[in-house]
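ok so i was messing around last nite and threw this chain in just to see what happens. nothing serious, just curious
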Amino acid sequence: MKNQEDKHEHLQVKKSVPYSEKRINNLEDLALLIQAMDQDEGVRIHGDIQRFKGGGFIFITKPDDRYCLNIVDRIYDSTTNTSAVGGNDEWIYFHNFEKVWERLKNLILNPLEAYAY
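result:
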């Protein structure tokens, strides 16, 4: 066992860095980010949707040639003062920006609370 440990002493294990989020401050910036979205990017928005707990979280991605809206419950934890993803998943797909934007602007909590990741 000692030999195996010695053999790998030179290897450095890099800890994974948590992903970073950038606050989106207005609807114009949100629209631009969605239009220019790459496959490895996404947006998380606080929703104002009555059928979802806490108004819901809205996640927007573009994994291929279409946009994906994933809406889930937003569960607030008063001990940590944070919100977490709950259940009640709804998935909606759109083939172009105009369609996703038309749907999205009626679901967003005002004032906007959104983050790009």
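not much to say yet. The radius of gyration is 19 Å.
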